[in-house]
């Protein structure tokens, strides 16, 4: 006798398939490649299924970004309770973020979209009228959770007083490293260094600065 699947379980499986399909399309061709029709076809669901879960393309992309931020936050939380020394935890957290830029550059760009590119009041009204409202602030909250977890790792390394200053410095440094590497302007022939070496230098500089 087959296992009965509830409506909620079926809906969750469909949503999961849509998110996975959208993430694959994003990796392959960037945001332009992600349409609800293409996502539904790739996921193998009915034509109307994507519209029952996401009001529009931006709702879907926001959900993908939020999920990736949550994964990064989970990684940072796991690092905090691990056995690495404080500098090792910082290094692993920064490398995880840079790794997204290296392996999934289109998704990385979505994580750091400028606020001008996010839907304003009219866009949110469109979602409410035309489809599932979703959660337009989900990515911001998930990013905030990652930042909170990262700040705790920084505080363990430099102390509570300086954690925010040095945490911001480390994240902006990592973001710059990821951008230069992706653009091809971090060539070893030109700079005689690497992304990993720069991360190590950032951590050493932060450690030295916090002891002054």
UniProtKB/TrEMBL annotation:
Record's keyword annotation contains Repeat: no
DNA-binding residues (ranges): 35-54
Gene Ontology molecular function, alphabetical: DNA-binding transcription factor activity; transcription cis-regulatory region binding
Keyword presence, DNA-binding: yes
Keyword entries, A-Z: DNA-binding, Transcription, Transcription regulation
Highest taxon, organism lineage: Bacteria
Segments forming domain HTH tetR-type: 12-72
Signal peptide from the UniProt entry: none
PANTHER family from the UniProt entry: HTH-TYPE TRANSCRIPTIONAL REGULATOR RUTR (PTHR30055), MYCOFACTOCIN BIOSYNTHESIS TRANSCRIPTIONAL REGULATOR MFTR-RELATED (PTHR30055:SF238)
Name of protein: Regulatory protein, tetR family
Species of provenance: Lentzea jiangxiensis
Lineage per the UniProt record: Bacteria, Bacillati, Actinomycetota, Actinomycetes, Pseudonocardiales
């Amino acid at each position: 006798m087959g296992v009965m699947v509830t409506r909620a379980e079926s809906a969750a499986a469909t949503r999961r398939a849509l998110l996975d399909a959208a993430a694959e399309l994003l990796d392959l061709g960037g945001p332009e490649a992600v349409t609800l029709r293409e996502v539904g076809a790739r996921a193998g669901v009915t034509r109307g299924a994507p519209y029952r879960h996401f009001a529009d393309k931006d709702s879907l992309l926001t959900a993908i970004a939020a999920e990736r931020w949550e994964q990064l936050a989970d990684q940072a939380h796991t690092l905090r309770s691990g056995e690495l020394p404080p500098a090792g935890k910082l290094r692993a957290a920064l490398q995880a973020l840079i790794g997204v830029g290296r392996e999934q550059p289109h998704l990385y760009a979505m994580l750091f979209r400028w606020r001008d590119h996010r839907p304003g009041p009219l866009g949110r009204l469109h979602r409410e009228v035309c489809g599932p409202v979703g959660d337009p602030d989900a990515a911001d909250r998930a990013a905030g959770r990652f930042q909170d977890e990262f700040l705790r790792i920084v505080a363990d390394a430099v102390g509570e007083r300086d954690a925010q200053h040095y945490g911001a410095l480390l994240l902006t440094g990592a973001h710059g490293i990821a951008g230069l590497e992706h653009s091809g302007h971090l060539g070893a022939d030109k700079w005689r260094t690497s992304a990993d070496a720069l991360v190590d230098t950032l951590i050493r500089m932060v450690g030295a600065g916090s002891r002054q």
